Amino acid sequence: MSDNSIDPMEFRNCCGRFATGVTVVTGKLADGSPVGVTANSFSSVSLDPALVLFCLDKKALSFDAFSLDSHFAFNILSEDQMDASNNFASQGIDKFEKAEYRCNEYGVPILKDTLATIECKMHAIHDGGDHQIIVGEVTSMAMKELTDDTSGRPLLYFSGSYGKMSGK
Question: CB of 103 within 8 A of CB of 109?
Fold first, then answer.
C-alpha cells in the first residue's frame, strides 16, 4: 500500500474514463488445463522486437499460468462478443465449456471469431504494485478480414460499462 492519499476506487474510476478495447488473455497451467481472463490492460510496447503487455492482479486464480508458462495469447474481442468477455471475467466456473476455441502448438487456447489474435512467448515480468506487468514477445498473429463498416467493430469498455462505436 502506498503512503499517498489516493483512494484506490477513485483512482480506478478515474482511469475508467479512458476507453479501451477488450481482450481475453489465454494460457495453460502446468497440468495443461486451459485458462483465460478478460483484460482491458493491453498495450503494444515495441515494434522491434514486437512486444505487447497486459497487467494481471497478483491474486488472480489464473496467475500461475501467466507467470510460469512460457506461451499465451491475446484474443481481441468484437462488439458482438460481450458474452465471451463476461464469461472469462467470471470466477469459479469452467470458462472454456462455453467457448469455441482451438489450441495452438503450445496448447494455448485460441478463441474463434475474434477481431485479432496475438500469440506470444514470455519476454519479461515486472512488479506493478498489486499487479504483475506481463510482457510477451509476439510469435504469431492473425486478423479477421473486414468485409464492411460494421464487421470489425471492437468491444469497448468505458467507465465500468461496455460501449459500441458509432459510425465507421
Answer: yes
